[in-house]
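step: validate -> pass
step: tokenize input -> pass
step: predict -> running
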Amino acid sequence: MKMKSHLLWLLGTAAISANAQTVYKMQPVAIQSRWAKEVSPENALKSYPRPQMVRTGWTNLNGLWDYAITPKDTGQPTAFEGQILVPYPIESALSGVKKTLLPTQNLWYKRNISFSPKTGERTLLHFGAVDWQATVFVNGKEVGQHKGGYAAFSFDITDALRSGSNELTVKVFDPSDQGTGPHGKQVLNPQNIYYTPSSGIWQTVWLETVPTVSIVDLKMTPDIDKGVLSLRVTTSAVIPAQAGISIKAVVSGCSECEILKQVQDDDRTRSIVLKIPNAKLWSPANPYLYDLTVKLGKDEVKSYFGMRKISIGKDAKGIDRIFLNNKPYYNLGTLDQGFWPDGLYTAPTDEALAFDIKAIKAMGFNTIRKHIKVEPARWYYWADKLGMLVWQDFVNPNQSLPEGSKEEFEKGALDEMTQLHNNPSIVAWVLFNEKWGQYDQQRLSEWVKKTDPSRILNGHSGELLYVNEQLRSPSPNAYVSADMTDVHSYPDPMMPIKQAGKAQVCGEFGGIGVFIPDHQWLTGSAWGYIQEKPAALKAKYTIMNQHLQLMEKEGLSGSIYTQPFDVEGEQNGLMTYDREVVKIPFAEMRKIHSQLNPDLKVSRRDSSLEMTTNYGVTAQNADLTEPGIAYSVMLQEYIGGKRDLSFLKKMAMMAMQAGDKPGALLAGSAYVSSLKMPLSEEDINNVVQFTKSTKDAGFNLMNTNADAFKKVMGDRKYTVAMMNMILKGEMEPLMNQGNTDWTVIEARVKPYGAPGEEILLRAKTVGFYNQQDWANYVPAAKAYLEKFGANIPEQERSMFQGAIDQHK
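step: predict -> pass
step: emit ->
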């Protein structure tokens, strides 16, 4: 999704030794999912985290760890601040901490583990994912370092362990959107289509014991045309040919499935071809999975695979379409962000993780576009098991492309393709999204297709982006070397361009905002591309899908609706963020989708059964009460004297939904005016949300208590917020009067110090640049870059400097 740009950016046999356990308590959060109350230190995500390489000798390290936050350049802390529940991000309510990690800080984790060494065994320490840079110590000795917030990694820690108690420490640095690494929708200043960061350990941590020579990796590639599965096995050490150790691969329940050949590729890899006669093909309608056991000496892992094929082919009319198992298959999808109100990047429980896929299938979709996030391995397991096609986005590079970001992006993309190769649900890779950090598109498209020829490539989803029928920016060589052309069109869907040999898809559309009272994140705003009343949503959504039907006849091969669930400030989901309310009943959505989803086009006898099943998902239907009516009740309560803080917060947001801006200002001001220093972190965040101008009640609070706000927000985020408020409250009223008198504006903002000076120079620089008033631009831009150039992206800095050089 895209927003319009603005002036401001804007181990051996191991057992867990008990930590000195304090009372765990989930931190307050505006709304939470039904699974949050099930989370405790004793049961935090206890399922085996890697379903395609399952071993029995493992120990889950999720639970309470000690934590501390220190300045980035200092060493390991001597004292820790408290305890954090792993693996929930430190910014999340479920972590028990709910603090923002700033780019100037490190986050430290510590716990003890017990170890009893055994001859012939090695101990591996696994991390599902840590965002962003992790350095791991055992008993004070560094055992490894890893960069990348979305990839699993492991270290052999055997040699650092000692018999008895051992100290495990993890240092994390996460600059979020201020760094070089891919960060997805995580930003330090969340708003609109960007969300709260998830720093630190956000997936399961576990120990595993393996023999000295063990299986490190399996790579499985099905070929339904030949009726075989190619299996490549990577081992931890060289297996001498004279050792006589062979790799055994057994497919459960398939007596005719046998090894056709086994070839030694190099010292540590062997390729095996498994015959799979009369294969049962995997599809959303019949997600059949074969169980596989692979043995190497004393090591044994359990796995699974699916036999399916994804390709581009011509239908009976010669139209290029997406084919599944050699037949045209319309990919009816939705854009899934993978965020949770209580756990942010981390679902509260494994049941919650599965729920999202079940709910999307209950809606009648057969495809999920996993939007610039890589999920835990168990999410893809559920997609495999439940039957859901997945278009998997690569996590985009930092959009300003600072030095080093390209290398980090390509490393992350390779990790992603390697880590997720075996999941039959993943049918397409999505390289770029809406020009977010786009570069070298042809080279990278060809690299992806060469690296994984078993899947199709969406080289650039939304390279052509239309909002209200207006093209945002042209692309002279769109969709080069890709397998499909893809257009984003908000709100209404449209046909993408046609190119020979490529399928046509609408990679994003919709974004219909519908507000459901009592089920909102309470960010102070709730955003959608268009706003509809609950009662009008079904008709609007139905009409959009009818247009998709017409486009399908013209050659459209897939579509992605934005989106299944509300996310933080966005209210454009088909369900609320807490997964409690479905805005169009599941059965009605399936009827709407039945003309496009091949699996819903069933006989009349089967149709009634199909239309009544919700795949075990429960949710209440939306209350179609007009939001204005619900708000008017609150307004009357306000008139009657109700003033408690939670009421005022809710009233301010609902006033905005009802279009009552004076009421929103009234409630927001009353809320902020009721606060007294010292403020909690949550209070500070709420003040920021309700303060947009120097005229708002919170501005004086922020201005006179800068240190307290900076401690929570960080220096730069605080400064930018102050700049925006000065711009809106002091400058824009004068700038909008016509002939701007910068002398008057300068006098108005001078009392605000550095934030006032920076926003003044920025406004003058941008204004003169847009007006091509080069005589005034050059001195303004020179002063802006000299004083504040370090605060802006490199691309913008270069643009401003280039104009100075050209016109000085």
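step: describe -> Residues 534-554 form the longest helix (21 residues).
step: cleanup -> pass
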